[in-house]
């Protein structure tokens, strides 16, 4: 029989082998800020489950290594990921001395690398299956539900990041909703202002270069500097405009964070609107006028639908960018997941940093997948001919 | 009837269309020919006010075309352009229904009209109606473009190089189809082209434009026989003249008494095609048959050559 290697599989198998046998699986610390001690898979788990996990990893890596059917590769990656997710929780329980509330167990580099390797395998399989946009969102929902179940079941309760969560459960959800409000709210404001501005720039050529240049310059200002620049004008507004302070407008806090995110969002929205409208076929536009559409009918009936996928791409950029950038808002008291990140940095408690960073990354990732799927659905329905 | 009176369009100082006056009779095909930059497209676009003239008046059936808002005027005039300009995000049926929808026709009337036009253009409404333009061939897209222009039963149809993007075989077919439909609906067609062959073939009258001026406006035979200037003569093409003249006549009109050997030519073929067939088959004469297959007589090389000579 002719045995052939899978190109990507070789890389995945090598990474998995290194992570399983040479890198630490979990870290044990006597309390949350002292340096930790590394534990391998076999040290971190009871003998039978440890051996089982090693066996699963070896088999899955072998499936990845050789050219195997897609279904088998899919099964291997899913089984390996589920086993890793379940057993890292078990490691937490196993390593924590009974009744000790100060000890911390966290996943170590080996665990993260293994997750990366098998996620890579899963992503490769899903790409090769060339799933429809709907199916991709379905996979995302399934993954979210699985992670949600694990969280609710308590399987991970002995891991350090969830112990940090348990101490801050109330503020976690409050900061989370603040984070989402900041990211989505500034996006909505940017769309409400940016779309008409983009249309105006498209219609009035003299305006175009000026507006885009100004937005470009704003984009280059570092976020912290922009917060600083906003303190004075917003502080002035708060003290001089009646009712502004009552609305929560101040030199620091949510208002400048919101304004900064809004300003950063404007360029992608405006630029993509301009590019999208410019890409509408001339002949279609001419025909629309020639058949007696008014300017408004032409805008909403022809130009807008044809430019929509490009505009949506701009909105995707903004959403993913804002979810990440909103972390910085915590620096000026704007709230959001950044609160945990900066507290964690201050206390040298990496687990607390992760409590802020992991949900941020997950949100951005989910937003990217969902919007990509939406863009693909609108683009295939309204395919623009290249001629 | 379309009356163009002293129409001028200036961009800055340059006159793109310079004091053009002409009358287009109803239910005829008027072809505007010229090189690129001659102002022929601008002249066409001033009729439905896609371009507003600097001075001059255009009257449609006696009424100044500025008496209604531009968009309303354009809904009453058919408009088809090169590269068809179909809306890529709308189906074929939706594209054809564009103007009727703008005019607020009721649904049944729109559907009936779309089906009628698609059938007329040999596109099965069931099969092609729900498709998107990019799923059609170039020839089909062009037909949908013309069907869309005719959807609201306009009296006047403006066409800007409508066959420009088609290959020669499909172009000939599209020209024939258009002439057939023009006869059927009695539409007045104003067609812009740079192709003299197309102009001679399609036009009841030809308007030759050069540098914004109307150089000659006459029937094709007159343009071929008596070009008004050396520019028109160049445009007609000295070496092509006799053949273009022949292409204006039907074989039926060149029939002589007598019989001949060989495959019979149909009576409504052009005299040019008949001459080509005679020269190619190496025969001095060929029989001619009517539409019903009855022999009409014969057509000879000598007879056709005499007809190809410059008219007195």
How would the blueprint of this fold be written?
The complex is a heterodimer of chains A (387) and B (312).
Chain A: H1 7-21, E1 26-29, E2 37-39, H2 41-44, H3 47-65, H4 70-95, E3 104-107, H5 109-128, H6 133-153, H7 160-167, H8 169-203, H9 205-220, H10 223-240, H11 254-278, H12 282-290, H13 295-325, H14 338-346, H15 350-381
Antiparallel strand pairs in A: 1-2, 1-3
Chain B: E1 2-11, E2 14-24, E3 29-34, H1 40-47, E4 55-60, E5 63-64, H2 70-75, E6 77-81, H3 92-96, H4 98-103, H5 107-120, H6 125-128, H7 138-150, E7 156-160, H8 168-185, E8 188-193, H9 196-202, E9 205-210, E10 213-218, H10 220-225, H11 230-236, H12 241-248, E11 265-266, H13 271-281, E12 285-289, E13 295-300, H14 301-307
Parallel strand pairs in B: 3-8, 3-9, 6-7, 7-8, 11-12
Antiparallel strand pairs in B: 1-2, 1-4, 4-5, 9-10, 12-13
Give the full name of the CATH homologous superfamily of the largest domain in chain A. MetI-like
Instruction: Specify the structural class of chain B.
Output: alpha/beta
Strand content of chain B: 15-25%
Strands across the major sheet of chain A, in which order?
2-1-3
CATH-assigned fold name of the largest domain in chain B: Rossmann fold
Number of domains of chain A: 2
Outline type of chain B: globular
CATH class term of the largest domain in chain A: Mainly Alpha
CATH architectural grouping of the largest domain in chain B: 3-Layer(aba) Sandwich
Gross morphology of chain A is flat
Low-confidence stretches of chain A: none
What portion of residues of chain A belong to β-strands? under 5%
Can you summarize the main beta sheet of chain B?
Answer: 6 strands, mixed
Count of DSSP H/I helices of chain B:
14
Task: Give Rg of chain B in angstroms.
Answer: 21 Å
Order of helices and strands of chain A: HEEHHHEHHHHHHHHHHH
Mean pLDDT of chain A comes to 88
